[in-house]
Write a structure and sequence with these properties.
2 helices; Umud Fragment, subunit A; extended; about 20% helix
Amino acid sequence: MKKYTFILLFIVFLLGWFSNSTYSQINEPEQALFSGNSLELYSPSDWVKEDQIELNKQFLTLNIQDASLATYTDTNSMDPVLDYGAIGIEINAKSPDEIHIGDIVAYEPKWTTGLVVHRVIEKGIDSQGEYFITKGDNNADPDPKIRFNQIRFILIGVLY
């Protein structure tokens, strides 16, 4: 009888451990918010080096060749990073090698007009060559694959 009790308790323990482990994985983002732990997310590349920044009492100067400024439509897809009123500092995309997972790019999608500004979450090669998968930080699903020839700009800074 003691042997069966021990086995039953062991099975109950394993079921409890398994269900807790499964629940934690499903709810990981919420758990991280409340437990003081945070998830490691990809960040953009470091595009602006310290020697490109000049600061004096009157001006802040960024020495960035071929930079342009951008404003954003209030779509909520990149909240809280980009929203209406934010001013982006962008550079032209010159090569697929310079774009990394975590970078935010502006690209011309095939499924709508205008530019979409989303974060690169995957980079790979398929039968058609190099591709990128992007996703809005506040979107549940990623965008369809894009190719380098669709990418127009890389976001290197945001002014609020």
